[in-house]
Amino acid sequence: MKKREDEFYIGYVDGIGQHTKKTVRQFVLFGLLAVILIASIFAFTQNRFKNSTFELATTTKIMGVYHENPYPMLKVKTGENTFKNILLLGFGKFSANPYLKKIRNKSGSISGSMISIEGNLIYYNGKTLLQITNDEKVTLLETGQAHQAPRPSTIAKNMELKGEIVDPKCYFGVMKPGKGKIHRSCAALCISGGIPPVLVTSDDNNISEYYQITDQNGKAIHKDILPFIGKPSLLSGQIVQLEDWYQIRIDVNTIQELDLPSRIY
Questions:
Q1: Cβ(114)–Cβ(141) under 8 Å?
Q2: pTM for this prediction
Q3: Of 40, 190, 244, 253, which has fewest CB within 10 angstroms of its CB?
Q4: Residue 47 has what pLDDT?
């Protein structure tokens, strides 16, 4: 049997041996197939991308009536006798409250006051949020009275809802999609940092509705709800309407986890 001579490849010398060419071709082909396979697996295991928007590179100035019921929101006029309540958030994984501290210290209660805020809009499926990144971009335009703010109205004294608890910042635009333990942990950090928890429910036609979650007295709730984030659950409580938002007022101890896979995380 004829012994094959070893080939040496020298970069500055023209030409390459046949055996080396064959090895390089096989390596490149294997590499391409591996990349295609990994990309396909990644694509098919991810959730479908949502048509949500997070205007990270663009700032927008909005003005409206500030109110807290109990989470910071701005009631903005969008047309003749039409308004939208925009949920206010802070930068990163924090609430809007640190960015409102300066104006509160100067003016006292700002509920019912006309305020302008410049920040990054987040919007999806009829809901709009605003990320505040600088307290210098929050301006008091006109002091007002609390009665100018929206007033909650009860629509059901006790109702059971099935869904998943999310942090609205990631869900409505920052993460799309956001699946897995990493994103569930991120949501827990956001809610523990003061971002309002929201219950997402979906009907048989995959139409979703959203409920801000508070305690039974309508007060903000954060850390007590962390064990249930991103897990299909059954919540029961009073349903309150705040114009274009709903709230569910609950006793955390009554939340029931459901033995179902998550549709969001």
A1: yes
A2: 0.80
A3: 253
A4: 53
Phi, psi of 254 (to 5 degrees): -95, 0
DSSP 12: T
H-type alpha helices, the chain: 18-44, 97-107, 168-169, 181-192
- Report the C-alpha gap between 17 and 39 in whole angstroms: 33
CATH 2.40.50 in the chain: give the residue spans.
Answer: 53-148, 153-257
Both tokens of 235, joined, read 């919540």
pLDDT tens, 210-236?
999 999 999 999 999 999 998 999 999
Burial 46-73, CB ≥16 within 10 A → b, else e: eeeeeebebeeeeeeebbbbbbbbbbbb
CA-CA distances (angstroms) from residue 67 to 105, 245, 256? 16, 13, 31
Fold that domain 153-257 belongs to in CATH: OB fold (Dihydrolipoamide Acetyltransferase, E2P) (2.40.50)
Structural contact between residues 130 and 168, judged by C-beta atoms closer than 8 angstroms: no
Over residues 93-134, the pLDDT tens digits come to: 999 999 999 999 988 889 999 999 999 999 999 999 999 999
Q: Which amino acid is at 113?
A: S
What pairs with residue 220 in β-bridges? Answer: 214
For domain 53-148, give the fold.
OB fold (Dihydrolipoamide Acetyltransferase, E2P) (2.40.50)
* Distance between CA atoms of residues 133 and 34, nearest Å: 42
Beta-bridge mates of residue 246 = 211, 241
- Let me know: does 240 contact 211? Beta carbons within 8 Å: no
Could you write out the three-class secondary structure of 157-176? EEEEEEEEEECHHHHHHHCC
